[in-house]
UniProtKB/TrEMBL annotation, chain A:
Organism: Sphingobacterium litopenaei
InterPro entries: DHS-like_NAD/FAD-binding_dom, ETF_a/b_N, ETF_a/FixB, ETF_asu_C, Rossmann-like_a/b/a_fold
Classification via Gene3D superfamilies: HUPs, TPP-binding domain
Organism phylogeny: Bacteria, Pseudomonadati, Bacteroidota, Sphingobacteriia, Sphingobacteriales
Protein name from the UniProt record: Electron transfer flavoprotein subunit alpha/FixB family protein
Domain Electron transfer flavoprotein alpha/beta-subunit N-terminal span(s) in chain numbering: 3-188
Family membership noted in the UniProt record: Belongs to the ETF alpha-subunit/FixB family.
Domain of life: Bacteria
Pfam family, one: ETF_alpha
Swiss-Prot/TrEMBL keywords: Electron transport, Transport
Keyword Transport: yes
UniProtKB/TrEMBL annotation, chain B:
Domain Electron transfer flavoprotein alpha/beta-subunit N-terminal: 23-210
Family recorded in the similarity comment: Belongs to the ETF beta-subunit/FixA family.
Key words of the record: Electron transport, Transport
Protein name: Electron transfer flavoprotein subunit beta
């Protein structure tokens, strides 16, 4: 028996969520009295992969081949499922990222395993009963899900399980799995990455703004605030619907759900759909001219006033703080 | 082009979510149901790709009990040509995906669209499961889709950017914002929907693998601490020493 965790990378660098998955897998393995094995696919150095040892992973299976450098949904799923079979994994853990969402259902289908997507805690295991909590109703609820299959697949939401350094080193092994030509049904033609941007789903700090900013020309101060904090930028639905900002920045029930350490909302009233997407943030700061805005009810800190006055002052105060 | 759009019947986005029967079931009292918003994007795209039926057909499928029929009729009013309801409680994603895959096996399609996820159980599972069951390629979170001569070009969302992916039909795609603008039914569509075919099928036997058996609502958040706009430094201090987030 083992726990298999799938490790994602971006251009050879392990993602932050990869360490979260490693810690989660390690903690389940400890619970079950077994070991956690990691699997990574792509052009990644051994030095980078051995970092996983510090998160409790003893062994890393590495698949490196020219035709698997970019994400191939079916082929990656086949490899992960065969590693799970070969290593007799009873649990497979992935991050609930854009790629993880494409892989996990395929792996679950191949293994006839129940899948819990978007888990937020370690499972509770007693005898044959296996139960995991996950967010449901777009963050408006937490559900407890039981899994009845012998193998289980779990994806965990980014930022919902802390990566914990344990010390230790990992051994990296090459892993070869048969991949069929029919597994190459999708071909990556181009990758467009905004290199200066911090990825929104994984960000520790998010600076978000709404219609209160009156127009897209006023976003410079939002970006500057984000820049000072090392934060990702986001927006409310009306803002992306109006085309002021791209859809990929829309946070809320029908957009991206985030759970950063700090969420700063500027000029967003706090409609129930928006709040659903941010309610698992650890600390929420709201800046709004209307004290009656519903967002204040879920905020930890609030400032009532004109964003065009407050945000520049906040930028100055943070610059002074960072300067010290 | 024959397109199948998988739709889910979900509570309206403004719904207050509560639970009943010792917190083991979603409380449906007073809840308005809608087409899952991401599925509306899939439906709009399907209508666009078939040029409103001039260049193919759009079938919608849902796994649900008779109570889901108003939602199916709305999809027909928006512009789907015909509809299928698999008469069963959608027990879990595995159960639903197997029902859909079975229907596709018996009625071939060039393109199968779903929303990127349903806003109730947020699994993002059905698209890739259906694809795997049928041995088809899939893209789970698409923010752009175009089809030309049996070849699809898809913009796939990735962290901090996008990937442009190509694939041959048949194909399964989970659509997100950006693929199409949802369509609002007009009077003619609503009238026509009444007479469009809605076939009811009995489910195949599938054992669900997961069960949602207990719910809770997230803990209420603390009282807001208001800070005077002339004292911004206090906020910086609190974020540093009290919240410990900067």
């Amino acid at each position: 028996m083992s726990v298999l965790v799938y490790i994602e990378n971006t251009d050879g660098q392990l993602k932050k969520s990869a360490f979260e998955v490693a810690s989660y897998g390690k903690d389940i393995a400890t619970q079950l009295g077994t070991e956690a094995i990691a699997l990574a696919i792509g052009d990644i150095s051994s030095d980078e992969l051995t970092k996983l040892g510090n998160y409790g992973i003893a062994k890393v299976l590495h698949v490196s081949s020219a035709d698997l450098k970019t994400f191939v949904n079916q082929a990656y799923a086949s490899i992960i499922a065969s590693a799970a079979k070969q290593h007799n994994a009873s649990i497979v853990v992935l991050s609930n990222t854009f790629s993880g969402k494409g892989l996990a259902p395929r792996i679950a289908t191949k293994l006839e395993a129940g899948l819990v997507a978007g888990a937020t805690s370690l499972p509770t295991v007693s005898g044959d009963s296996f139960e995991v909590t996950k967010t449901a109703f777009s963050n408006k609820a937490i559900a407890s899900v039981t899994v009845d299959s012998s193998i289980k697949v779990i994806t965990i939401n980014p930022n919902s399980y802390a990566a914990t350094e344990t010390g230790g080193s990992a051994q990296v092994e090459a892993f070869n799995a048969p991949v069929e030509s029919s597994d190459f049904g999708t071909i990556v033609k181009d990758i467009v990455r905004a290199t200066d941007k911090i990825s929104l789903p994984e960000a520790d700090i998010v600076v978000s703004a709404g219609r209160g900013l009156k127009g897209p020309e006023n976003w410079a101060m939002v970006e500057e605030l984000a820049n000072v904090l090392g934060a990702a930028t986001a927006c409310s639905k009306p803002v992306s619907d109006a085309g002021w900002r791209p859809h990929s920045e829309h946070v809320g029930q029908t957009g991206i759900v985030v759970s950063p350490n700090l969420y700063i909302a500027i000029g967003i009233s706090g409609a129930i759909q928006h709040l659903a997407g941010v309610s698992s943030s650890k600390t929420i700061v709201v800046i709004n001219k209307d004290l009656e805005a519903p967002f204040f009810k879920v905020a930890d800190y609030g400032i009532v006033g004109d964003a065009f006055v407050i945000v520049p002052k906040l930028i100055e105060a943070l610059k002074a703080y960072k300067g010290n | 082009m024959k397109i199948l759009v998988c739709i889910s019947n979900v509570p309206d986005t403004t719904s207050k979510i509560t639970f009943t029967n010792n917190d083991s079931e979603f409380n449906t009292t007073g809840i308005q149901y809608i087409i899952n918003p991401y599925d509306e994007i899939a439906l709009a795209k399907a209508i666009e790709l078939t040029n409103s039926g001039a260049n193919g057909s759009v079938t919608v499928i849902t796994v649900g009990e008779a109570s889901t029929e108003p939602t199916i009729r709305k999809a027909l009013a928006i512009g789907a040509d015909n509809a299928v309801r698999v008469n069963a409680n959608p027990a879990d994603a595995w159960y639903v995906a197997n029902q859909i895959a079975d229907y596709v096996k018996k009625n071939s399609f060039d393109l199968i669209l779903t929303g990127r996820e349903s806003i109730d159980y947020n699994g993002s599972q059905v698209a890739a499961m259906v694809a795997e069951l049928l041995g088809l390629p899939s893209v789970s979170i698409a923010k752009g889709l175009s089809v030309e001569a049996e070849q699809a070009s898809i913009e796939r969302e990735i962290e901090g950017g996008k990937e442009v992916v190509s694939a041959s039909l048949p194909l399964v795609v989970g659509t997100a914002e950006g693929v199409a603008e949802p369509k609002i039914p007009n009077m003619r569509g609503i009238m026509a929907a009444r007479t469009k075919p809605l076939e009811v099928l009995e489910p195949i036997e599938v054992k669900p693998l997961t069960k949602f058996n207990k719910y809770s609502t997230p803990p209420a958040r603390g009282n807001v601490k208001l800070i005077d706009e002339n004292n911004i430094n206090e906020l910086v201090n609190l974020l540093h020493s009290e919240a410990k987030v900067i």
